[in-house]
């Protein structure tokens, strides 16, 4: 097994983050600092990260969390703000968030120790759908604004892919996108004249909030995890 995949399966980090750990020379295999993420690792290999010996693959878990406002979706925060990892008891597992939600946005975020799954859910080529409810300003949302969102909006980092959009109430839009650009939904709505006043993610692929209250979580069952892998 390649070293980067071994680290992901051991719950150390996502595959991308594991590559960074290796590049920073923080990984030792059989007493040797390794800088090659493709290095083969066997069942009998002794693998250490920052001096901690790994014991092999952890049991795979996925949690669905309803992130409240004011909570950051990173594993750590240099400003001391609460993180989404603090909402779920890890029981010794190394969990990390799948994707991001802005600190001023709420809703569904997944936590897992399955690095391969996290990679697939966030890599652009897999085009995993994410659905949001946005309360917007700028007056009534007219058909022209909806059409522009559906066709793709020109942002400073390029044209967005077409979004699925529908009006679900006065000043409220439901948007489904398949990209993961920084603050994308907010920037899209701003570009068509309707700044976002409140934003909630209600679905990530096949996973839904399903009545989760802000700050609460549930462990995804086997069927839901299989659906996530099928993406």
Account of the protein in words:
The protein has helices at 3-9, 15-23, 115-122, 143-151, 184-191, 222-230, and strands at 27-29, 32-33, 47-49, 52-53, 62-67, 96-98, 106-112, 130-136, 154-155, 158-159, 164-169, 172-177, 196-204, 207-208, 217-219. The chain has three domains: 3-53, Roll (Structural Genomics Hypothetical 15.5 Kd Protein In mrcA-pckA Intergenic Region, Chain A); 62-124 and 206-230, Alpha-Beta Plaits (2-Layer Sandwich); 129-204, Alpha-L RNA-binding motif (Alpha-Beta Plaits), CATH 3.30.70. α1 crosses α2 (15-23). The radius of gyration is 20 Å and the shape is elongated. The chain has 231 residues and is α+β, with helices and mostly antiparallel strands. Strands 5, 6, 7, 8, 11, 12, 13, 14 and 15 form a nine-stranded mixed beta sheet that branches. Strands 2-1-3-4 form a four-stranded antiparallel beta sheet, with no helix packed on it. It is 22% helix and 27% strand.
């Amino acid at each position: 097994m390649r070293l980067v995949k071994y680290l992901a399966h051991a719950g150390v980090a996502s595959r991308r983050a594991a590559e960074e750990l290796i590049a920073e020379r923080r990984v030792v295999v059989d007493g040797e600092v390794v800088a090659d993420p493709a290095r083969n690792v066997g069942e009998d290999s002794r693998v250490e990260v920052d001096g901690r010996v790994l014991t092999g693959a952890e049991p795979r878990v996925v949690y669905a969390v309803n992130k409240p406002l004011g909570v950051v979706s990173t594993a750590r925060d240099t400003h001391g703000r609460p993180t989404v990892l603090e909402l779920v008891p890890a029981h010794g597992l190394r969990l990390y968030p799948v994707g991001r939600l802005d600190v001023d946005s709420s809703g569904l975020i997944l936590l897992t120790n399955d690095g391969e799954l996290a990679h697939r859910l966030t890599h652009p080529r897999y085009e995993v759908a994410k659905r949001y409810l946005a309360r917007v300003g700028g007056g009534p949302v007219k058909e022209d604004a909806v059409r522009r969102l559906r066709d793709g909006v020109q942002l400073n980092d390029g044209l967005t892919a077409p979004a699925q959009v529908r009006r679900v109430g006065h000043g409220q839009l439901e948007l489904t996108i398949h990209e993961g650009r920084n603050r994308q939904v907010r920037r899209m709505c701003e570009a068509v004249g309707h700044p976002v006043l409140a934003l909630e993610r209600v679905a990530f692929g096949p996973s839904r909030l399903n009545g989760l209250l802000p700050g609460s979580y549930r462990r995804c069952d086997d069927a839901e995890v299989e659906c996530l892998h099928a993406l």
